[in-house]
Amino acid sequence: MIVDASGLAGARLLGEPPGIARHDLCSAAQEIRAVRDRGAAEALFARHRVPLGEVLSFVGSAGGYSVLNLRLEGDHVSMLTGSIPAEGHPSGRAMIERFAAEHPWIGPPIRAGARAIPLGPPALPLARGRVARIGDAALQVFSAHGSGIGAGLVAARVLVDAITRGGGLAEYETRWTRERGGLLAAYDVFRRYSQRITLAELERLVTTGLLDAAMMRPAMTQLPPALDARALLEKAPRALRERALVSRLARVVARMEAIRALHPLYPSRPGAAREAWSRARTRMIGRSWVASRP
Ligand SMILES: Cc1cc2nc3c(=O)[nH]c(=O)nc-3n(C[C@H](O)[C@H](O)[C@H](O)COP(=O)(O)OP(=O)(O)OC[C@H]3O[C@@H](n4cnc5c(N)ncnc54)[C@H](O)[C@@H]3O)c2cc1C
Fold first, then answer.
1. 139 lines ligand 1 (CB under 6 A)
2. Is the same domain home to 142 and 181?
3. Helix (H, G, I), strand (E, B), or coil: what is residue 142?
4. Ligand 1: distance of its center to the CA of 136 in Å?
């Protein structure tokens, strides 16, 4: 058996990852930089009420789908950024350069790296004959924050279990798609929404409490969205003041649920049923762009 784990720009043994356009690429960068002035660094964390050792995170400074994370570690600072340049925003590396230029306490890089992370619903097929794909090569990425490490490791577990049980690569494809594919595809719907919201909209969602810690926690821990009825009722008065924002968010959440519900129905064998299933998923993904528009 041959497993293609060669990433986004790798061997592509099962062909191009389908449907990946420039708007589906997150430009991510990570740097460890020297700290020139520890006092100034600590003052920034104190100003944002973030304890030392925790991550200070600026969300939305380069488009709805962007983040700049800082963590102070001894005599250096760790910086992690991500954005979607195809939406007209600076790249992850440019975000780091800009932030460092604005904060003279940040010194030169000690270690640095940057590359693209593919965002999209997981690729299919995952296996053909004796060849399978996994990780970024199969778009097994938690799109909402461009995290592929956990998703890839879980897929590796499913792959190994399928092989050792005798089900082979075909079982890997069916089991993974049914049990894990829906979660990643659903959060990709959220990613499409988040990359089109403006900083002003994001601020309103947070300051009105419509997007709060309880709603964000599942996304941070890569679990299905949890929409508790009581919590939603408590939000109702604020929701009435932000009808347009809320109805757009509700459309997105409905699409997330629909696409998640489709995945456990992935047919076990290639053929007409699978083709019909794939067409249904493609239609849902198309509609999710529409749902995410204002
Ligand atoms: C700056 C940055 C920060 C990130 N932070 C996080 C994070 O905090 N959490 C998280 O979950 N994810 C994060 N990600 C995403 C994560 O790194 C990727 O999703 C993950 O590394 C994908 O793993 P992979 O093994 O599928 O592919 P890759 O890591 O791309 O590995 C593919 C390997 O295959 C090799 N290769 C390529 N072509 C061939 C070939 N033809 N033959 C043989 N070998 C080949 C490559 O050299 C490479 O070593 C981050 C990404 C970036 C860029």
1. no
2. yes
3. strand
4. 7
